[in-house]
Structure formats: C-alpha cells, structure tokens
Amino acid sequence: MTPDAHTDVNAHTDVLLGRHAEAQDLFGARVHAVREDQWDAETPCLEWTVRDLVNHLVSEQLWVPSLVRDGCMIEEVGETFEGDLLGPDPAASWDTAAHSAREAFAAPGALGRTVHLSYGDTPATAYCAQMVADLVVHAWDLSRAIGCEERLPGGLVRFAVDEITPYAGDLEKSGLFGAPVEPPPGADTQTRLLCLLGRRP
How far apart are the first and last CA of the chain? Predict the structure, then answer.
C-alpha cells in the first residue's frame, strides 16, 4: 500500500468511526429522555414497545466486541445477548453497551478485519456502516414514540440513505421494517430515508 493509499484508508476509517459515535450519541440522548411511564409505549416498529426497541439496540451493541474484537462466529455467541438486557436501569445498560461497541470498533486495526455475520463474512467497515444506519433510523423511531425531536442531523441522514438504499428492499424480510413506500413529491432526505424503510413520516 502506498503512503497516499494508507492515508486515504485512515481518513475513511476516521470518518466512519466519527459517524458511529455521532449515531450512538443521537440514540443515547433519546434513551436518556425516556420517562418512566413511556417504556411500554408503542413505537413505529411492528409490535415493539419502547423497551423492546432499546433492548434491541443494546443487544446489537453488545454483539460488536464478540464479532469484531474476538472474531467469534454467530454460533459461539449463541443466545448470550437474547432476553431482557436492560434491567432496572435501561439508560445505564445502554451506556455500557454503547461504550463497549465504540471501543471495539475504534481499536487499532479493528475496521480492517472481517466479521462473521448471519448472512456471511463481511468487512468490519460494512458492519460498522450498517450499525450507523440502524442507529439513525431507530433514533427516529424512539423520538416519535416518546415525543422527542424527530429532525435528525443531516449528515447522519445522508449517510444512512447512501448505506441503506442498495439493500432497502431486502430489509422488509427481517420483520423489523415495513415495505418501502413512495415518498411524496419534493421529499427531503430524511423523508426519503423513512419511506425507504416503510415509515410514515
């Protein structure tokens, strides 16, 4: 690798880590805004309460050290991160999980590795990008559920659109997202993102 190429790779890595940290902070701010009487509230996610949604994102963060740092296969982790992971203090559980994921992605050489996901071996950079997009979309879900600010940072929204567009049609199969809907004429980037994932802005 030439010095210039090495610099380009490092710059890309820094940008990706920055987006990941920004997306975590965005979602985390919403978690800390949840009132005690809102944990059982409905969300735009099918059949998920606020607690279910936050628990899902906590689980996703906890997977990162096992997959990225330890190089585990899905089967090795098994059911470790299933069930209720929030305990009596959901916000603290989120903070702990988010910190562990951020440290794992930011470790020297981490984003140059390959991770073993359910659908096959994937570059850690692609895995991190997927995590960013997921955090952004679910930050909107959580915002709507608890009556928080729904307008998301433009840079993160554009990142999520670029990331999700190539495979948006497949996400419906996961059961976590509805079928894409046609955005209204002149829709802004955030509206297009939400429509890609079957949300009704």
Answer: 45
Residues for the chain: how many in total? 201
Q: Rounded CA gap, 75 and 72, in Å? A: 8
CB atoms closer than 10 angstroms to residue 126 = 15
pLDDT digits (tens, 9 = 90+) for 125-167: 999 999 999 999 999 999 999 999 999 999 999 999 999 999 8
Structure tokens at 150: 């729904």
Per-residue tokens: 165? 């567009």
pTM of the model: 0.90
Residue pair 64/77 in contact (Cβ under 8 Å)? The answer is no
From the DSSP assignment, how many helices (H) and strands (E) are in the chain? 8, 2
Domain ranges of the chain: 3-196
Map 93-113 to HEC letters. Answer: HHHHHHHHHHHHHHCCCHHHC
For residue 120, list its beta bridge partners: 117
89 contacts: CB under 8 Å, gap ≥ 6: none
Residue pair 162/155 in contact by the 8 Å Cβ criterion: no
3-196, what's its fold? Four Helix Bundle (Hemerythrin (Met), subunit A) (1.20.120)
Distance in angstroms (rounded) separating the CA atoms of residues 179 and 48:
17
**Cα separation of 130 and 114, whole Å?**
14
H or E segment and range at residue 173: none
